[in-house]
Amino acid sequence: MPRKVVITGLGATTPIGGDVPTMWRNALKGVSGARTLEDDWVAEFDLPVTFACRASNPAGEVLSRVEAKRMDPSTQFAVVAAREAWRDSGIEEIDHDRLAVAFATGIGGVWTLLDAWDTLREKGPRRVLPMTVPMLMPNGPAAAVSMDLGARAGAHTPVSACASGTEALAMGIDLIRTGKADVVMTGGAEAAIHPMPIAAFGAMQALSRRNDDPEHASRPYDVDRDGFVMGEGAGALLLEAEEHALARGARIYAELAGAGVTADAYHITAPDPEGLGATRALKAALFDARVQPEDVVHINAHATSTPVGDKPEYTALKATFGAHVDNLAVSATKSQTGHLLGASGAVESVMAALAVYERQAPVTINLERQDPEIPLDVVTSPRNLPAGDIVALNNSFGFGGHNAVVVFRSI
Amino acid sequence: MASNEEILAGLAEIVNEETGLAPEAVELDKSFTDDLDIDSISMMTIVVNAEEKFGVRIPDEEVKNLKTVGDAVDYIAKAQA
Questions:
Q1: A171-228: per-residue pLDDT in tens?
Q2: List of chain A residues whose C-beta atoms are within 8 Å of the C-beta of residue B18
Q3: Signed CA dihedral, B71, B72, B74, B79: sign only
Q4: pLDDT band per the 50, 70, 90 thresholds, residue A58
Q5: Count of domains in chain B?
Q6: Which residues of A touch B (CB under 8 A)?
Q7: Which residues of A have a catalytic role annotated?
């Protein structure tokens, strides 16, 4: 039997709450994090999309001024979330040589990169900040978290677009099972609400254009869905080898029982319409976790609210679960948070762990007319999950055909 | 033209902005590395900000000679003259 991996600390900074308790309270209530953007650059560039889900607590205001100055916003979010997860775990004494980091991002330090480019063009090379490279590098969040916690068993950065955050958890499981670490800070961070990514995602017709009604724009599974809504923030989960957690009497949210990671090898952006890659990831995750499909009661779905994306996930769920698909309580929390790209898998994993621990499924908002081709049992009002042994999944899929699924089992 | 006192005050402000050190800790006899714990990357940021604030140019090869706050104040004062 491989070493069991458990989740003992949670952290998050998101558009629906700057910490886990606030986010979770809102996730059960059902709120929208989407707002019209007030930034001057929206009008300056006449952007086709004028709203997004901003983090409710800007990380620059949580960290000290000097700390924040040396970090890209994506790294700031990572550090805020990881510190919360660390405090939440109650961990005190630890062998730092046995503590690793797996912290993902989808895009990396895009603000730093583009600010530096503007500075170079406007003021010349002398004014480009010496901290530019360490701030823009995609491993910046993992490196900063590693320094902050003194994690010396390696600091890794899985990058697989919108599957990145979930892949970080999969990597964390591997690090513990293979004995490379006893404790791993996993998570994902993203800060890409910048005019260039908005223009670029807009150009590929991926974003909702519901500019006159931002709060109703992110509407997974609804017939009127027209694209995703950009979000920003970070999620963090502290993973521990079970024996390590038990030895210190830690509070355990759930077992992180297994993961499945696959690639579609089909198209660079479009998901395989038959959901074959996602199906293989789901089946691999269940096999890895040694759970039967019938054990699963809840899914935090990828469900981004794009016309083409939501359906193949249903196809994959149906192929994996057969008739049991009708018994799954499905939450599409991007309806509330927007799509946090490389952080989404981590934030949604925080929610899935809490769903198992608190026995409550978070709410999907804006589902007014459900797409008849996606007849899932979508959780639209607070719903209790059953007592006894339960299992939940979190799905994440990314441009490039990346599929990642992780399995949460009640303790 | 700024007096040496004004240069010191301006420099202390830049150091505070970059490192969070209290401006009054930035004294003439303090070493940037040994006393103020300023690393080379922060030092370059401070130098570039000082160039802009005081309208001077501090070549990269000069920066290693600016061991103390006083060295920097003297260099800036001479460069302004």
A1: 999 999 999 999 999 999 999 999 999 999 999 999 999 999 999 999 999 999 999 9
A2: 66, 69
A3: positive
A4: confident
A5: 1
A6: 64-66, 69, 126-127, 129-131
A7: 162
Of residues A66, A126, A130, nearest to B20 (C-beta): A66
What is the pLDDT, as a whole number, of residue A120?
A: 98
Structural domain that includes position B32: 4-80
Domain A260-409 has CATH 3.40.710.10: no
**CATH number of the domain within which B37 lies:** 1.10.1200.10
Chain A to chain B Cβ contacts (< 8 Å): 18
Task: Locate A315 and state its tokens.
Answer: 């196809």
Instruction: List the single residue in B41, B51, B52 with the smallest CB-CB distance to A131.
Output: B41
- Consecutive H or E run containing A76: helix A73-89
Buried b (16+ CB within 10 A) or exposed e, A356-372: bbebbbbbbbbbeebbe
What stretch(es) of chain A map to CATH 3.40.47.10? 5-247, 260-409
Tokens of A10: 């949670």
Dist. CA A214–CA A206, nearest whole Å = 15
Provide, as residue numbers in chain A, all residues whose Cβ is less than 8 Å from the Cβ of B20: 64-66
ipTM of predicted complex: 0.84
The residue whose two tokens read 């050190």 is: B21
Cβ separation B20–A131 shorter than 8 A? no
**Contacts (Cβ under 8 Å, ≥6 apart) of B73:** B4, B7, B8, B11, B28
Distance from CA of A71 to the nearest CA of B (A): 13
The b-or-e profile of B2-37 (16+ CB within 10 A means b, else e) is beeeebbebbbebbbbbbebeeeebeeebebeeebe
CATH number of A5-247: 3.40.47.10
Q: Does B59 touch chain A (CB under 8 A)?
A: no
Contacts of B41 in chain A (CB under 8 A): 130-131
B20 and A65 within 8 Å at the Cβ level: the answer is yes
Measured between CA atoms, how close is B58 to chain A, in angstroms?
Answer: 11
Query: β-strands A391-398, A296-300: how paired?
Result: parallel
**Which spans in A232-361 are helix H?**
242-247, 276-289, 310-321, 334-337, 344-358
Nearest CA in chain A to B40: A130
